[in-house]
Amino acid sequence: MVIESVADEGRTFEPHAAFVQQARISSKEEYDALYKRSMDDPEGFWGELAAQELHWFKPWDKVLQWDEPTVQWFAGGQLNISYNCLDRHLTGARRHKAALVWEGEPGDSVTLTYAQLHHQVCLFANTLKKLGVEKGDRVAIYLPMIPEAAVAMLACARIGAVHSVVFGGFSAESLKGRLVDAGVKVVITADGGWRRGSIVPLKANVDKAVQGTAVESVLVVRRTAQKIDWHEERDYWWHELQQTVSAICPAEPMDSEDMLFILYTSGTTGKPKGVVHTTGGYNLYTHITSQWLFDLKDTDLYWCTADVGWITGHSYTVYGPLSNGATSFMYEGAPNFPDNGRFWQLIEKYGINILYTAPTAIRAFMKWGEDWPGRYDLSSLRLLGTVGEPINPEAWMWYSEVIGAGKGPTPAPIVDTWWMTETGGHMLATFPGAHTMRPGCAGLPFPGVEADVVDREGNPVPVGEGGYLVIKRPWPSMIRTVYGNPDRYRQNYWEQVPGVFFSGDGAVKGENGYFKVLGRVDDVLSVSGHRLGTMEIESALVSHPMVAEAAVVGKPDDIKGEAICAYVTLNEADQDQSQEELIQVLKKHVVAQIGAIARPDEIHFTEQLPKTRSGKIMRRLLRSIASGEEIAGDMSTLEDRSVLDKLRGS
Ligand code: PRX
What we know:
Blueprint lengths: L16 H6 L5 H13 L1 H12 L8 E6 L2 E6 L2 E2 L1 H5 L12 E6 L5 E5 H17 L7 E5 L4 H13 L2 E4 L6 H11 L3 E5 L2 E3 L2 E3 L1 H8 L7 E5 L13 E3 H4 L12 E2 L3 E7 L7 E6 L1 H14 L7 E4 L6 H13 L3 E5 L10 H9 L3 E4 L1 H10 L2 H4 L8 E5 L5 H12 L9 E4 L10 E2 L14 E2 L5 E4 L11 E6 L9 E2 L3 H9 L6 E9 L5 E6 L3 E4 L2 E4 H9 L4 E11 L3 E10 L8 H15 L8 E4 L13 H8 L15 H8 L1
Parallel strand pairs: 4-17, 6-7, 6-8, 8-11, 11-12, 16-17, 16-18, 18-19, 19-20, 31-32
Antiparallel strand pairs: 1-2, 3-13, 4-5, 9-10, 14-15, 15-25, 21-22, 23-24, 24-26, 26-27, 28-29, 30-31
Bound molecules: adenosine-5'-monophosphate-propyl ester.
């Protein structure tokens, strides 16, 4: 991506006085004081919060130990995130408060109070133990968005097993890659899940994926009751096994730096990387960001629409809200099933107060029209959040005016949150009761986060100019390593720009200290807010026998943010197949290799790809061709200029 400086859009909005009055952090001065303290005395700042906000079995010896790139937060301390999300809420008024409110796509619903969720988690944890799962073992979770997904995560955390949640939209092949990389012992799945009226064949995918891996058992949750293949020696029904175990399962004291989970995310190489998060810092950071940025109150019904297969679902559907004793809403299915009004119908039906979703969803709602939200009472909404990609000011305004403004007693502020799988929690945002909102700008650093925009050498770039978004000191929920690949961790994050955490995003910092995030500067695409590596899709394409070479680039798309555009050179083509048939074959192949989210929007066949004299594909030129732009910049290294003319004609 070419980083350019971007003029400030200029429009600003203040949170409504009635919101400010009851907000947890309700003035800029309050934020400034928190931020200053966090910079001047990070150990005091985080140590006090950790003592005040979390339960510890054993206090820590040292708040922060930083030996780049290795960080330890609260070393020597012991805690359990499942205890913090459950047990400690059982002794007071929250005992019978709803922890999870869930609705399935067909319209069925479940509410689990804290006491009930605790009970379910203990049963699940003992079931895992019965299957031989021990502290440190890796357990994969490949489930639909059903309460059992949260239960399974908390059950793993309770016994010290490391979970690796795999989004149900990923294919058997993708799942297998993750099972192998993480050395998974047990897979938790369901007979299927509902998505847009159809059943996602999760168990069938698991059957394919586990072949040739170290997986010993598959625990199956009954969801759709469809017929599935059964392997007696390996498969177990959750509803059967839970009958055979005790409901008493004390939370295992975990060292603060014990691994909590591995979550795979796309990078610049063909293989997704296993981002490792640990216990104490992650618990504290997701807890406090949830509390302050969503202004969480005990009376709120809070809905983060992300699937638990992504980091947003981990941090802000499960761990952050539950650690605060909040009520978290979950929905299983698609936003347009049975019609385009489903989200608004859910908000009205349940009286949801806080909605956290992605710009790609907002742009789809805009396209579907104001009529849909107009049919429902959205007056319960008091705060709106956004995450996943830069939000264009038009979408921001629509979200504010059509969904948030004036519908309830107080117009809802919008909290844009910039962060990533690797950061574990929100990094840049505006405090809803303290800050001016600037559509299109992610906002200011959260206390403890020292963010900057720099050049490749690490020199800060002047205000208003584009550069690399970096973080200059460790924060509690920082990625600890790439699972099984510490070199990749160091090279990817700490050596791109010397001595600072490299996010991979470009940004501009304004006079006012606000950051505007421009998007990725590497070969990572953001498709409907989901991260996909171009190399990953290219590898999938070239794994088809007919494909010789492939280059994948992003192309701006009104709804998805970026569309996937592939340029392919073929080995001997099958003469009987038309070009259109071939395109369909290759699209299907990519879906089978990675999942439907990676299906190319466009495939162009070409005899040659534009390459440098040393053989590197010049994706920059392909990006310009894909988006119909003038080709600019240096072309002196291009080996054969005639390739460009042919490509333009393709
Ligand atoms: O490019 C940024 C974009 O999403 C990337 C991280 O993707 P992932 O690890 O999948 O996590 C997504 C959910 C946290 C970032 O590198 N991104 C995320 N939030 C924003 C954003 N870009 C602009 N504004 C945001 N609020």
